[in-house]
Structure formats: structure tokens, C-alpha cells
Task: inverse folding
């Protein structure tokens, strides 16, 4: 490690130690030498001298693959090489001025005066241009990056609703947002994080709706990050979370621009990171984890019903195996007689205590799930067949595992998949194991103790200062219509008050549709 | 700080290993005890019988077919008291007896006549047992015998007895609780449902257990207990229903009355009772018992067209009159024959006139047998079924 660092330092030491701030030289060859030294051993660095008036007057340089060479050729090279330097309208122009003002019609051009700016510009995909005899260079935007098409996000599928999702290009992503809010109040604050990766990050919010103190907090937390590189928004998430040791996610992530916009309209702030389709949304509440996009794209009666089902499934996914273990081993009195008799009939001959049985089955289930995700799609189906056959049937028939346990584990598995936010589901899975062990040791008391501890933890969590359980705890009655149920849209007159913003009203009152209204108008 | 944290985690982890799982017991290590039978044992002790589920004989998967094997077996042993007997019994039971699902308790008739007061504490003291238990006196036999009668429909005879009890409109699994309440109060004498060993077909000697005419358990009234919880006498099924009606516990009742040209029957489903005590100045006690019921006309074998409200109210009247007479008879029989307040009328006074009750409660049974009890019945026929008059009558025979 130490040795490596030493060698690296040696290499750079060929360059002047503080080349970054050094101004460009007026001698072209010095600049060229310098650039060659900076980009030593970078095979994608292309440097191209252009002869104008019989001598090397201009040097173009860029990184191959990041630059649109075709446009470059049409716009810059052809006019310069074939037509020569255009004669000005009388005033004496430097070549640079000519290039800047006459050749590039649309392309943004920036004038730079030191190496640092020049190098940075080239690294982000621009073309650098230096001219003999001048101490400033040009950075022209000919960016062309390879990117995925806009596709439907695989992690958040809907039946009804927009089908576009973010891709890995931050510009495309911000464009998707901008397309939805045609107002200058949608602000995108840009910053760069990462010593080496220099990843661009955008803070998106709607001015006046997002509270100022939240924005300040986001800015300061993002500003404090020092890291070599950022490959995914998760890197950032871990730096700005309120409680890093909690298994529960405190920052929402999404691939869908419509979710981002919906949250911005509620006064939240989104953080969009380059090179990943996952945007972060702060603050997140526990209930966000149980809300799906579709809740807002289907009629409210149905979605309220679905939410109830989801809450019940949530409880099942957390407690069912532990309740089963606790009841059968500690409190069999509480099971109805006939059910108890059939459970005990099914358990007859099973060699393991039910807590071990439950742990093993849960373990195997988690293994199957993990294997299913990691394997290539073609093999993935084979895993599920083997899993269903081996665990579902063979284990029961062999009398190693009881059938009720398989039912319990399968139900729990299904229930945990019904939770819309994947990372909340994973948190629950871990907590479920803890609950299972508590139930195996203390029975129902263990579950109650676990539940109390879990509730205390959840109520204590904060996400950017907003209590994780709001608006249930602390109770904000006005905001409940989007928690346990999904109220009709015309009742969402105000933005959620647990995120305080200035612009509170969302929908003017009195928009409940009724046929009578129409008759009066006519 | 760091040290205390480690210590704290250490304590928490140690719970995992030192707790020892006190009452953890797998289902496979428990013998699910469905019913208890109490009989007189050797040397004046008790003989405890138990009905235990055989889980591996319970079919969990469909198909299979083959001969049905019994899902239970019975076990019994004597001892000085229940715990002693249980200790003796556990010697032949490979799994620990688990009483949490005990649904039914049977008492042999002889045992009940000996008195229950000094025996039953185990049923309430142990945290494991449930008070929601059905309880029966086995008429003319022992509890052990009653447990042996397999029911062709239910895999466990104890459950069968409980279900029969519920079907007949009786107390069901609140019977034991009811008994305890009565045993505990001064103005209420306990009764316990009676069950008898009968046969599937009437007036025919019952065959083998798996023949078409197996012996069965049959609900057969109620046993009357005195203050010392000794069984004194028995009410038959009809009187038992009247008793339950007055107590307000009856859930279902069919009344059939003889009519001039054919019987009529109603099934009452909404049944209630209200008792009004009147204490006059010279401490003469009078009770008025209002019995109400609503139900459907099941049979009307006469030519009366009940579509006419006049006819219906006439029919209603005759049901009321008949019922009033019957219930009054039962009440008088209880007053004269047993002189024990099994209706809980004393408790009604206790609730309504707590001051007077203080003087009345001494020797209440005597006062009860001298009290004047009037029964009033109010019945309503809410549904008359699919036809007005019986379809078996010609147009000319129908009375409108």
C-alpha cells in the first residue's frame, strides 16, 4: 500500500508539483508537452495538432469515446482545414475569437486560463482547444455519451401509469423531471462529489414548496462528503443518513421520475446522481415504504383497500413465523382445538423443535431468493423448481419438515414481497429472524418485547429531522388521509404538514365532483 | 462508555443461553388431553380418566382411504386427589399431559352424588386449564364409560358431546363457568347438564361401536345440586330447557302444540327472559318471569290459513298458553320437589334490592320454595314459511 502510493507520487513528480493552478503558456509546444505529461499512459487521450498557415497553430485534444467526433469534424475541422482562417470584418481577430464567435453556433464554449480547468473540461467529455501564442484555451462541448434507452424500470412496475424510468445519464434524468414540471420553480442545484470520480449530483426541489431548512440540511450534508468515487446513489445515502445503524431505510430511492416529482410536490427534496438510475428522496417516512406508485394512479377506494391488505401482509411478514413458533411451543392453549390437533398431527414425527425447523426453513427460503436474484434469468427458473420440489414437497414427505411450517414460511415469503419498497422488505426480513429467535426463547412474551423494542426504535428514527412514523407518531390528524387509506384526490387540499414549507395549499377546496354542481352552472 | 456497552451486549446475549426455555415444550412432547372423567376411586379417592388425542391417527392429507383408526385413546388411574391420580397416570403416558385444550369434564353420577365441593380446585387453580369447559353428569354410569363411546361423526367423543350440547340450544362450553358462578353465590344453586349413554336408533339394542346402530351419548336434562354441591336430583330434557329459558341461557327451542285437527310447531331463535321481583311489606316475595321468543312457524298440520293475521295471532296465543302452562309446571316442580333456587332468582333480588337481600339470604332456599312465581310468555311468529294453509288441505277445508 505504502509502496504503491510512493510510486504513484514519483510518476506525477515529473510534472511541476502545482501544475493545476499554473496558467497556460503562450508557447504551444510547452502546453502540448504539459498535456502529454498529464495524460501520460491514457490511451483514450487524443491530441491533434492542426496546421493553419503552414505551421502548427491549433491543438485539439479530447478523450476518445466521450466526444462526438463527427460533429467536431463538421463544425471545426472542415472549415478550419479546408477553408482556412476566415477573414474578419476588419478588426484583427485572434484565432481563438474566430473559433469562439464564428464557428460554434450552438455549442457552448468556455474560455479557460489554467491547466486545471482545461483538464477538467476534457475529462467531462469536452474538446479542449489551444492556440499558439495565446494564454487562454477553449473548452467546447461536444459531449456524446453512450446511454441506455429510457425503459420501464424493472424494480417498480405498474399496470397504470407512465412507463419511463431513469437511466444512467444525469442529463436525461433531469430532462425527464423538467418535462413534468414546466416551471422555473423546479430547481436543479448541481454539485460534484468524489475526488477522482467527480460525479455530478443534482439537488432537485421546487422553490417555495421545499422548506428552506431542509434544503440547507441537504446541501450541508452533501457538501460534507469526501470520497474517492461514487458509483451509485447508495454511496451518498450512507453518508447522509440520520441513523446509520438502523436496519430500516431512512432515504427513499426510486427509478421513476413520476415518483420523484410527486414527492417534490409534497415539499421533499430529491438527489439525482450521475451514472445510476436511482434517485434519492428525502425525507422518507415509514409509510412511504408501504406506498406504491399505483396507489395514486388507481381509484381511491380500491387503493385504500389494497393498502389495508398491504398493512396486514406487513404484519404477517414480520410476525407470522414467530407467532407460530410461540403458540405451538409455549402457548398451545391459544390455538383452537381442532387446529391444534391437525398441527400436532402434521408435526408428528418431525425430528426438530419447531424453532429450529422455522429457522432452517427461513434460511433456505432466503437462500432460494438470493440464488434466484443472482443467477442468470435462464437458470433462475430452475432454482425455483428445485426449491418448490425439494423444500415444498420432498422435505414434508420425508417427514423432516412439517407441512404447516412450509405454509407459514411460504405465506411469510409472499407477504414480504408485497411490500412495495424493496429495501424496507429486506429490513423486515432481518427483523423477522430476530423475532423468531425471541419467540423461540420467550414465546409470546418474546414477541411482545421484540415488538415494543421495534416500535421504540422506529418512533425514534428521524429522516432529515422528520420523525420516521409521522404522521401517526407524532399524530397529525390532517395528514392521515394518505396513510391508512388513500383519500380522494380532491381532499388533499394541503401539502403534508410534517414537511413544513411555505406554499401550503395544493388543491383549492370544493372540487368534489357532484352532478348537481354541473346543473347549476348551466 | 465502550466497556459498559460491551457489558450490556454481554448481558443481553447471555439471556439467549441461560434462559433455558422454562416452559418450552414441543407439540410432539405433549399429550393433548381433550376430556377429563371423574369417578369414585379406591379408598374414597378419585379415579381420573382422560381422553388423549393420537395425532398420527388424525388424517392430515386427503385420500389415503382405508379403515378409519381411532383418533383418541382413554387412560385412567386412581389417587387421593387429581394430582395424585395424575402422577400415577403419567407413569403410563410417554408424553406430558397437556390440559390447555381440555374442552369437556364428565362426572360419574355416583361421584356427583358424593359431592363435588372437595374435589375440583385443580380445575381453577392451574394456569393451564381453561374455564371455557363443558361439563356433564353421566346418568346411571361412570365418566370412564362415557369417554369410551366413539362418535361416528366426530373423531373425538368429547368434542361430540360438546357439539351435541351446543346444538340442543344448551350452555355449551360456558357450563362449567356457570356452575362456578352458582357455586359461589348465595342466591343461586348450581345445575350441571346430564348426559346419558343411549343408542343411535330408538328402542333397539345398540350394536357394536362401528355398526350402523352404535351407542351414543345423549344430552338428557340437568342435574340439580344443593348448597354443598351434592347432586340431589335430575330434571328431564324438557324441564332443562325451561330452566335455561328462565335463566336466559337458551339459544334455540322448538315448541309443538296439539291442535284440534293437527299439531303445530314453531322454532324460536331469539329467546330472552326478564325476571321482576316484588317484595311486599310483610316480606312475601313474588316473582314475575317474562319469557319472550321470536321464531318461525315450522309446521301447521291443520287447515288454518296463517296468512291471515287473525289466524296467526290465534295460533300465537295458543302457543303462549301452552308454553306458559309447561314452564309454570316446571317451576312449581322445582319449588316443591327440590326447594333449591336453581333459576338464580335470589341473585336477581341481590342485584335489584341489595339491602333487602342481606336479610333474605339466610335460608333462601326455603323462602324460594314459598315464593309466588308467575310465568308470562310472549311469543312472536316472524316467519310463516312458504305457504299459508297446509297444501294437503282442500280449498273447502281451509279455515280463514
Result:
Amino acid at each position: 500500500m505504502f509502496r504503491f502510493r510512493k510510486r504513484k507520487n514519483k510518476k506525477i513528480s515529473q510534472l511541476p508539483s502545482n501544475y493545476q493552478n499554473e496558467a497556460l503558456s503562450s508557447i504551444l509546444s510547452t502546453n502540448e508537452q504539459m498535456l502529454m505529461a498529464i495524460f501520460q499512459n491514457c490511451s483514450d487521450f487524443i491530441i491533434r495538432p492542426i496546421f493553419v498557415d503552414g505551421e502548427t497553430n491549433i491543438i485539439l485534444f479530447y478523450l476518445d469515446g466521450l466526444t462526438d467526433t463527427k460533429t467536431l469534424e463538421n463544425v471545426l475541422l472542415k472549415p478550419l482545414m479546408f477553408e482556412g482562417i476566415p477573414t474578419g470584418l476588419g478588426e484583427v481577430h485572434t484565432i481563438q475569437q474566430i473559433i469562439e464567435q464564428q464557428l460554434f453556433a450552438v455549442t457552448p464554449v468556455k474560455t479557460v486560463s489554467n491547466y486545471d480547468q482545461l483538464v477538467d473540461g476534457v475529462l467531462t467529455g469536452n474538446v479542449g482547444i489551444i492556440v499558439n501564442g495565446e494564454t487562454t484555451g477553449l473548452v467546447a462541448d461536444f459531449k456524446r455519451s453512450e446511454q441506455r434507452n429510457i425503459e420501464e424500470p424493472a424494480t417498480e412496475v405498474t399496470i397504470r401509469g407512465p412507463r419511463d424510468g431513469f437511466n444512467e445519464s444525469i442529463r436525461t434524468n433531469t430532462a425527464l423531471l423538467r418535462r413534468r414540471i414546466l416551471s422555473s420553480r423546479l430547481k436543479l442545484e448541481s454539485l460534484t462529489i468524489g475526488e477522482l470520480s467527480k460525479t455530478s449530483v443534482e439537488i432537485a426541489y421546487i422553490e417555495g414548496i421545499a422548506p428552506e431548512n431542509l434544503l440547507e440540511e441537504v446541501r450541508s450534508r452533501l457538501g460534507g462528503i469526501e470520497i474517492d468515487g461514487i458509483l451509485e446513489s447508495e454511496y451518498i445515502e450512507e453518508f447522509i443518513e440520520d441513523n446509520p445503524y438502523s436496519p430500516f431505510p431512512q432515504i427513499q430511492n426510486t427509478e421513476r421520475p413520476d415518483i420523484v416529482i410527486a414527492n417534490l410536490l409534497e415539499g421533499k427534496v430529491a438527489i439525482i446522481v450521475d451514472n445510476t438510475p436511482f434517485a434519492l428522496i428525502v425525507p422518507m417516512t415509514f409509510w412511504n415504504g408501504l406506498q406504491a406508485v399505483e396507489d395514486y394512479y388507481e381509484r381511491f377506494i380500491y387503493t385504500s383497500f389494497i393498502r389495508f391488505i398491504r398493512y396486514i401482509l406487513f404484519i404477517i411478514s414480520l410476525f407470522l413465523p414467530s407467532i407460530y413458533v410461540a403458540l405451538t411451543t409455549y402457548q398451545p392453549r391459544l390455538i383452537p382445538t381442532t387446529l391444534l390437533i391437525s398441527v400436532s398431527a402434521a408435526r408428528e414425527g418431525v425430528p426438530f423443535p419447531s424453532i429450529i425447523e422455522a429457522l432452517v426453513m427461513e434460511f433456505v427460503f432466503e437462500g432460494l431468493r438470493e440464488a434466484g436474484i443472482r443467477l442468470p434469468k435462464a437458470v433462475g427458473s430452475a432454482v425455483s423448481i428445485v426449491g418448490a420440489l425439494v423444500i415444498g414437497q420432498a422435505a414434508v414427505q420425508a417427514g423432516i419438515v412439517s407441512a404447516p411450517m412450509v405454509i407459514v414460511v411460504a405465506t411469510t415469503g409472499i407477504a414480504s414481497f408485497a411490500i412495495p419498497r424493496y429495501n424496507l422488505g429486506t429490513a423486515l426480513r432481518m427483523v423477522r429472524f430476530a423475532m423468531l429467535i425471541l419467540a423461540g426463547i420467550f414465546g409470546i412474551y418474546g414477541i411482545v418485547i421484540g415488538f415494543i423494542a421495534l416500535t421504540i426504535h422506529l418512533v425514534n428514527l428521524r429522516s432529515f429531522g422528520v420523525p420516521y412514523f409521522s404522521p401517526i407518531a407524532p399524530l397529525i390528524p390532517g395528514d392521515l388521509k394518505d396513510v391508512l387509506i388513500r383519500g380522494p384526490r380532491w381532499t388533499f387540499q394541503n401539502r403534508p404538514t410534517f414537511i413544513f414549507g411555505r406554499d401550503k395549499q395544493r388543491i383549492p377546496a370544493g372540487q368534489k365532483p357532484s352532478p348537481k354542481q354541473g346543473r347549476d352552472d348551466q | 462508555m465502550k466497556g459498559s456497552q460491551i457489558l450490556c451486549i454481554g448481558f443481553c446475549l447471555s439471556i439467549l443461553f441461560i434462559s433455558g426455555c422454562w416452559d418450552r415444550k414441543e407439540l410432539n412432547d405433549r399429550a393433548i388431553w381433550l376430556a377429563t372423567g371423574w369417578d369414585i376411586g379406591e379408598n374414597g379417592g378419585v379415579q381420573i380418566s382422560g381422553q388423549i388425542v393420537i395425532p398420527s391417527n388424525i388424517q392430515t392429507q386427503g385420500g389415503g382411504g382405508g379403515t378409519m383408526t381411532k383418533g383418541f385413546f382413554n387412560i385412567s388411574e386412581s389417587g387421593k386427589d387429581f394430582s395424585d391420580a395424575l402422577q400415577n397416570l403419567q407413569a403410563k403416558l410417554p408424553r406430558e399431559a397437556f390440559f390447555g385444550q381440555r374442552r369437556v369434564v364428565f362426572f360419574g353420577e355416583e361421584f356427583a352424588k358424593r359431592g363435588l365441593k372437595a374435589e375440583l380446585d385443580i380445575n381453577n387453580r392451574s394456569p393451564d386449564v381453561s374455564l371455557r369447559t363443558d361439563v356433564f353428569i353421566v346418568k346411571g354410569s361412570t365418566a370412564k364409560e362415557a369417554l369410551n363411546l366413539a362418535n361416528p361423526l366426530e373423531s373425538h367423543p368429547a368434542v361430540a358431546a360438546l357439539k351435541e350440547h351446543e346444538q340442543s340450544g344448551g350452555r355449551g362450553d360456558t357450563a362449567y363457568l356457570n356452575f362456578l358462578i352458582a357455586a359461589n353465590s348465595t342466591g343461586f344453586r348450581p345445575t350441571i347438564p346430564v348426559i346419558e349413554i343411549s343408542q343411535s336408533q330408538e328402542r333397539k339394542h345398540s350394536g357394536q361401536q362401528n355398526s350402523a346402530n352404535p351407542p351414543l351419548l345423549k344430552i338428557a336434562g340437568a342435574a340439580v345440586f344443593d348448597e354443598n354441591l351434592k347432586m340431589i336430583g335430575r330434571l328431564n330434557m324438557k324441564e332443562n330447557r325451561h330452566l335455561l329459558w328462565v335463566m336466559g341461557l337458551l339459544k334455540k327451542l322448538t315448541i309443538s302444540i296439539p291442535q284440534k285437527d293437527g299439531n303445530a310447531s314453531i322454532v324460536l331463535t331469539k329467546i330472552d327472559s326478564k325476571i321482576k321481583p316484588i317484595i311486599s311489606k310483610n316480606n312475601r316475595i313474588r316473582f314475575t318471569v317474562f319469557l319472550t321468543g321470536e321464531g318461525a312457524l315450522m309446521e301447521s298440520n291443520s287447515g288454518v290459513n296463517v296468512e291471515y293475521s287473525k289466524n296467526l295471532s290465534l295460533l300465537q296465543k295458543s302457543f303462549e298458553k301452552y308454553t306458559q302452562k309447561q314452564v309454570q309446571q316446571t317451576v312449581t316442580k322445582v319449588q316443591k320437589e327440590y326447594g333449591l333456587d336453581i333459576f338464580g332468582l335470589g341473585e336477581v333480588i341481590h342485584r335489584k334490592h341489595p339491602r333487602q337481600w342481606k336479610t333474605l339470604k339466610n335460608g333462601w332456599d326455603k323462602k324460594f320454595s314459598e315464593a309466588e312465581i308467575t310465568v308470562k310468555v310472549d311469543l312472536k311468529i316472524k316467519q310463516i314459511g312458504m305457504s299459508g294453509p297446509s297444501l294437503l288441505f282442500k280449498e273447502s277445508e281451509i279455515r280463514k
